[in-house]
Amino acid sequence: MALNYDQAVAKYEPTLGLEVHVELNTKSKMFCGCATEFGASPNTQTCPICLGLPGALPVVNAKAIESSILIGLALNCSIAPFSRFARKNYFYPDMPKNFQTSQYDEPICVNGYLDVEIETDEGPKQFRVEIERVHMEEDTGKSLHVGGATGRIHGADYSLLDYNRAGIPLVEIVTKIVGGTGKYAPQVARAYVTELRDILRSLAVSDVKMEQGSMRCDVNLSLAPVGSNELGTRSETKNVNSLRSVERAVIGEVIRQSNRLEAGERIVQETRHFQEESGQTRSGRSKEQAEDYRYFPEPDLVPVAPAAQWIEELRASLPEKPSTRRKRLQELWNVPAKEMEAMVNAELLDVVEETIGLGAEPTRARSWWLGEVSRLANEREVAPTSLITPAQVAEVIALIESGELTDKLARQVVEGVVGGEGTPREVIDKRGLKVVSDDGALMVAIEAAIAAQPDTAERVRGGNLPAAGALIGAVMKATGGQADAAKVRELLLKHLGQG
Fold first, then answer.
1. For the structural domain made of 439-495, what CATH number should be given?
2. Structure pTM?
3. Distance CA 301, CA 31 (A)
4. H-helix or E-strand containing 366?
5. Angle 185-203/243-262 helices, nearest 10 degrees?
6. Hey, where are the domains in the chain?
7. pLDDT value of position 486
8. How would residue 468 be classed by pLDDT, with cut points 50, 70 and 90?
9. Residue 433 has pLDDT above 90, yes or no
């Protein structure tokens, strides 16, 4: 009988290793001046340097060096006073030079760590993920395999190559062996990649869009019998491109490997590919034989030797840690953990904070960004921040609090702003959305509602206050939703002798 996940981790101890590749958001490539914009027409962002043509000489992108140092500092790494690039030689169509310029035995950042917190059966628990190295390299091109059922080279009719991505600055963040996580290995892996993504976003060094490949994770996992203090044979699941998939890839590999071990089969050291539909991994290529990349120092590039003063200046510029900021804002706004998580996942924390900074009440600010604005954004399949500004949301909230708008009218105002009708004030004027607050006008509508529903009015006179809802609804309909419902209720009950 096949083991499920809980049965598997009761018998086998998982050990993790995570390699995260991050495309930096520099305007030009790592060693040339070509643009790095995502989505450009194939092979329009190339030059003799990134195509590896004879005689072309690379020059290191200084901004990429700065971004790499910032990443290392944020991950508590030591910054190497001297590092250099090497040529990683291999033949593959996605690298036109037949070698990748990377860092090998002399990376720019070493020996760091990142603490992450997860919920366990015993409550919140912190795990330390140690960082082995942060090194710089250039990204490869992109292969498109046409024909066949898998989208991979095997079975394809032909392949197309796009070298726009070749040469884009890339940072690889490699952890040391992560053990001692037990059954929480999937959650630790996800928490680590999540926190790392938040740190990189706070540093503004990458857009970290996993769905576009600007951040991707290789998940290494091995199993050994519980209590054996040994390391099993690892698999490497390549290019996992979402936080949820990182967690699922660990779960899938624990189940797969444990059942092979239970059946007396050996684990093959290999690369594997994650299948989004099933949550399982599929075999890629064997890595049982060490690949000889024939690294040697890149002769066309000088070593990287950042000045100590510059490093300290960069250290002083580091922003508040995302985890620290989240806890501070959660306490300041008195917001539930789930709602804070929702804001972070939706990438709305910055705009909510800005909206509150403009005077909006925290609960209303969160509600509008997570609610109505996000709904409109989902309908249009765009980011909420592309539709409306924090200043406009703050203005709408202020109009609600002053009594000039009801929530219903405010939603119409937001729809108008999103639709390009102007500022909140301009939308109000164009649509005539001011709240009906004149007692005389409201009493006319109230008396009309009472005349139309005399039986309901009589029940209210007799003390059945919930029955007033039907009359209030009629008044709101008569005023086009522009009356203040609380004021209508007050006037109605007073008129019927219940005020």
1. 1.10.10
2. 0.81
3. 9
4. helix 362-368
5. 150
6. 5-310, 322-431, 439-495
7. 66
8. low
9. no
